[in-house]
Specification:
The chain has 12 helices and 11 strands. The chain has 308 residues and is an alpha+beta fold.
């Protein structure tokens, strides 16, 4: 598993709200759910994404934007529109229609724009590391790898067939992956360090090893041996490209894994979780967890579980 794939695994569409809205001006759709991630694409026409706090972002035909919550945002025909905002959220969903969770569309025979949206839940601490790498609003211009996905989304949304929600979920995942890849790779962009580091033949290999075998008894020497370079070369190159030493990265990765396991496996003991992420001693694990997370594993489980 590569770093991006690992971080993306909790950002998946599972019964996510999906919408296809045909709009004629003036319009103002206020997305009030504050979803962790919302993907928006205009199939035809144009409009503006207006975040709750931040400058408006134009959305032209086949452009795609991803909006990071929890703040709300509005899709308008033009900045300063005279339209009264229409709240779009859970109450707009119509799961009884075909068994899918479409948002109700606002349709007009003279529609000037068709907006496709997908609201994503984000599960777990692992995927929060992906969200932390994103701005509140990011936009990818039309003409990229996601264009082919849009055609499939439009076709699937136009019919009501068994398994439609599964198809829409997978298409939304595909679209989101294409969008994030292009945004990270945009000319002049500043992607997170781990994104660029994945492509280095040595450090990319090292990152894949740490993600594939987080519980292994890693040392810098062992990692250097597996990647075919000297210990000093690995340590310097890793720090230069990733921004921290390899074992510091490993500890933070293990603690993210542990945080999710503590919530997913409520019958597992702290010792069980410690062993699964590479610690033979639960006391050493608890000390590392508190150092990274600011609280011990038992308190984290109790407080995070009560919030959920």
């Amino acid at each position: 598993m590569d770093v991006f794939g690992d971080l993306f695994r909790g950002v998946r569409a599972h019964g996510s709200l999906f919408g296809s809205s045909a709009l004629s001006p003036p319009w103002a759709l206020h997305f009030v759910d504050g979803a962790p991630l919302t993907l928006c694409t205009v199939l035809g026409g144009a409009g503006w994404i207006v975040p709750e706090h931040g400058p408006p972002e134009p959305l032209r035909e086949r452009d795609t934007v991803v909006v990071r919550g929890p703040k709300t945002f509005t899709f308008v025909d033009e900045v300063g529109t005279r339209a009264e905002p229409v709240a779009c959220g859970e109450l707009c969903a119509a799961p009884e229609e075909g068994g899918t969770r479409h948002r109700r569309g606002w349709t007009d025979g003279g529609a000037a724009a068709t907006l496709i949206t997908g609201a994503y839940p984000v599960r777990g601490e692992i995927s929060r590391r992906l969200l932390d790498a994103l701005p509140v609003v990011l936009r990818v211009d039309a003409g990229g790898t996601g264009d082919a996905v849009l055609d499939h989304l439009a076709a699937e949304a136009a019919v009501d067939t068994p398994g439609q929600q599964v198809v829409l979920d997978r298409l939304l995942d595909w679209m989101l992956v294409c969008t994030l890849r292009e945004w990270f790779d945009r000319p002049g962009g500043e992607p997170p360090a781990w994104w660029a580091a994945q492509r280095d033949p040595v450090i990319g290999h090292a990152l894949r090893l740490l993600h594939a075998e987080p519980a292994a008894p890693w040392t810098v020497a062992a990692l250097a041996d597996r990647t075919g370079v000297s210990r000093s070369t690995l340590a310097k190159r890793f720090a230069d490209l990733v921004g921290e030493p390899p074992l510091t990265y490993l500890t933070r990765w293990r603690m993210a894994l542990a945080a999710d396991l503590l919530l997913e496996r409520d019958t597992a003991t702290v010792a069980d979780i410690a062993h699964e992420v590479g610690y033979a001693d639960p006391f050493g694990f608890s000390a590392a967890f508190k150092r990274v997370r600011g609280t011990n594993p038992s308190d984290f489980r109790q407080h995070a579980g009560s919030r959920g």
